[in-house]
Input
Amino acid sequence: MEIETLWEEVRELSLGLSGEVERLNSPPTPIQFLRDFVSQNKPCIISNAINHWPALSNWSNDSYLIKSLSSSSSSDPLVSVHLTPNGRADALAPLTKANDSLCFASAHVQHMPFPEALSLISSTGSNFVAYAQQQNDCFRLEYSALSPDCDANIPWASDALGCLPEAVNLWIGNHLSETSFHKDHYENLYAVVTGRKHFLLLPPTDVHRMYIRDYPAAQYLYSQDTKDFTLELDKPLRYVPWCSVNPYPSGKNKVEEMEKFPLFFQGPKPFECTINPGEILYLPSMWFHHVRQSPDDNGRVIAVNYWYDMQFDIKYAYFNFLQSIHYPVLKSTVLKIECEDQLKTNSSEDELCAGVS
Ligand SMILES: O=C(O)CCC(=O)C(=O)O
Output
C-alpha cells in the first residue's frame, strides 16, 4: 500500500476531511476528552475553558506584570529570553552568508530581569528578535509570582490523563516569533492568554512529508559590542534530526523550495487553526506543529502550555515503525548520492553537509 493511502484513510476515518480542527464550546468531561481526542490522537480547540483565569485581564497590563515579577519571591528572579536575528529559534539556517549549507540553529539564551525582557520583546525595530520562553517548566520556575493568575493544571485533562503536568511553560513573543515544524513526546494543552497563535498541524502518520534529515547543531551568539549575531557549530559536532520543510517559502527561491518538498506541498493541506485569547488547543503527542503569532494591542502574544507525559503505547510503536520506512525510496536515494558527491568534492565542507537519514 502506498503511504499516500494512509494519509487519506486517517483523514477519512478519524480526523475528518474538512481540514478543520474541531472546536468545543466548553470544556469536555474527562471521559469525553479521553475517548474522543486523546485515545484517537486527535486535536481539538476548547473555547470558554479558562474564562476564570485572572491572567486574561491582568496580563495585557505591563505595569501589572512588571510589579508582580519585580517583587517576585521565586527562587530565580531572572527569566530566560531567546535571541535570534529573525525570530526563528530552533530552526534551519544557512551556516554563513557565503555557505548556504543548512544547520539546526538554536537561540542565544540570555537570563535577565523581567522588565528588561519585556523591553527587548517590544523593541521590534532592532537587529534581534526576543522571545521569552524556555521549555523547562519555566512558568513554575521563573514566573511563580504569576501562578495565582492561572490554574496549576487543566483539571479535566489531568483527570483524563491520570497525572499532573510534567512541565508548565510560558511564552511571551511578538509578531516575528516563529516556531518551526517539529513534534514533541508530550500531550500538550496550549492556552492563549493575549494575542493569537496560528498553528499548522500534521498528524504523525504524515512523517515522510516533513523530510526529516540530520542537520549539524549550531548556536547563535549575540555580541553586545557589534550588536550582531554569529552562528557557531556545536563542539563536538553533533547532528539533530529536524523537519526540512518551511511551509511559508517566499522570495526568489519560493518555487524551488516548493519543488524540493513535493510530498508536503502537493499532499493534503495541513490542519490550520488560530487559537484566540481564552482558548486552549489540545495538541496530541507526536503531531508536527508550526507556530506563528499575531500580537495584541501591546504588540505581544502570551501563552501558557501544559505538557503531560504521553503513553508510550502501541500507537507510539506503530509511528516509530512508519518513520523507519524510507519513502519515497527513490527521492531520498538521489538526495543521499548528491550529498555524498558534495562531500567528496569539497572535503573542507565535510562537517557542514546536512546528513541524510
Ligand atoms: O508557541 C510557540 O512558539 C511554540 C509552541 C510549541 O512548540 C509547543 O508548545 O510545543
